[in-house]
């Protein structure tokens, strides 16, 4: 999105002044290093947020240190900002080059035209966000174009129909979920701990979680009404279900749930996750994220204990 310069930390990307000057001490915190990476990128802060799948306001808060960056967000910032995870997490390693200092490279102006890949990523992030917040049938192509500062023709070029946009939004949030889940799994010390982490990642606790679930539930609804949408929805669901099944079977190899039907345990758990999340989102049955967590921790009993 084309934006105008603003104060440091603004969601529209006025972070250019945060680039370290020669001789300035290295950034000491994760937020400071992330702020430096974003400021050094040849795109606006809002565009950076779109590319890493974060709400611009959430990114702005994280860069100010008032919101903790999640593992998958740190990984995405490193990837888009072209720095190592080691640098972001510890400060060790090569910091980002200040914007426009590479030999022979012209600094990119905010009004420059985005390359097709970057524009598609921007449109995808905006489409997913709008569908999650407003609802599939209330989002117009004109809304997406306005959000991205581009034309409806450009949006149609990347997503010819609204159904294409919904499919893309579902895949967008699915990939973001799996990135976050894998980051959690890398620090889990056991299979049981991975199941606990899986539950935490599934809870619709924060704004981003609710948006993810919103698109997921809407894709179910549209797949019920339109069979052409079922293949993509089924593929995403099968991937998620396989993760649970693999963890259950890993528990069995470790001596738990001997003789239990892994497929049945998986079906029971995934069904509970979906049903409970819908109750939380819809505000029905007095369901809360805390109650959802407690019920899911008992979902594998008496075969696998997560407490």
Account of the 3D structure:
By secondary structure, this protein is mainly alpha-helical. The protein has helices at residues 30-40, 45-52, 56-64, 71-81, 85-90, 116-134, 141-148, 152-158, 162-186, 191-202, 207-225, 230-253, 262-282, 289-297. The longest helix has 25 residues, at 162-186. It is globular, with a radius of gyration of 21 Å. Residues 1-24 and 100-112 have low confidence and may be disordered.
List keywords for this structure.
single chain, 307 residues, mainly alpha, globular, disordered N terminus
Largest sheet: none
Number of strand segments: 0
Pairing-aware structural class of the strands and helices?
Answer: mainly alpha
Query: How far apart lie the N and C ends?
Result: 46 Å
Strand content: under 5%
Average pLDDT over all residues: 82
Tally the helices.
Answer: 14
| H/E series | HHHHHHHHHHHHHH
The rough form would be described as: globular
Helix content: 55-70%
- Spans of at least 5 consecutive residues whose pLDDT stays below 50 are 1-24, 100-112
Radius of gyration: 21 Å
């Amino acid at each position: 999105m084309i934006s105008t310069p603003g104060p440091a930390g603004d969601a529209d990307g006025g972070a250019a002044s945060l680039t370290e000057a020669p001789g300035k001490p290295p950034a000491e915190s994760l937020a400071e290093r992330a702020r430096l990476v974003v400021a050094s990128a040849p795109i606006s802060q809002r565009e950076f947020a779109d590319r890493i799948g974060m709400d611009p306001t959430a990114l702005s808060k994280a860069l100010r240190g008032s919101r903790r960056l999640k593992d998958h967000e740190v990984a995405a910032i490193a990837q888009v900002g072209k720095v190592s995870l080691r640098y972001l997490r510890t400060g060790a390693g090569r910091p980002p080059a200040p914007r426009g200092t590479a030999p022979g490279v012209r600094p990119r102006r905010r009004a420059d035209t985005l390359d097709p890949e970057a524009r598609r990523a921007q449109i995808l992030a905006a489409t997913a966000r709008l569908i999650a917040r407003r609802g599939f049938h209330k989002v117009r192509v004109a809304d997406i174009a306005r959000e991205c500062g581009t034309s409806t023709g450009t949006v149609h070029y990347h997503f010819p129909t609204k159904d294409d946009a919904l499919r893309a939004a579902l895949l967008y949030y699915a990939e973001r979920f799996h990135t976050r889940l894998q980051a959690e799994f890398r620090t889990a010390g056991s299979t049981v701990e991975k199941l606990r982490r899986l539950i935490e990642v599934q809870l619709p606790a924060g704004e981003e979680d609710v948006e993810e679930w919103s698109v997921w539930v809407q894709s179910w609804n549209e797949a019920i009404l339109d069979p052409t949408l079922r293949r993509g929805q089924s593929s995403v669901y099968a991937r998620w279900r396989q993760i649970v099944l693999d963890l259950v079977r890993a528990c069995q190899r470790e001596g738990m749930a001997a003789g239990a039907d892994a497929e049945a345990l998986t079906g029971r758990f995934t069904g509970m996750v979906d049903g409970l999340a819908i109750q939380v989102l819809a505000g029905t049955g007095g369901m809360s994220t805390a109650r959802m967590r407690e019920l899911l921790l008992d979902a594998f009993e008496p075969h696998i204990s997560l407490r």
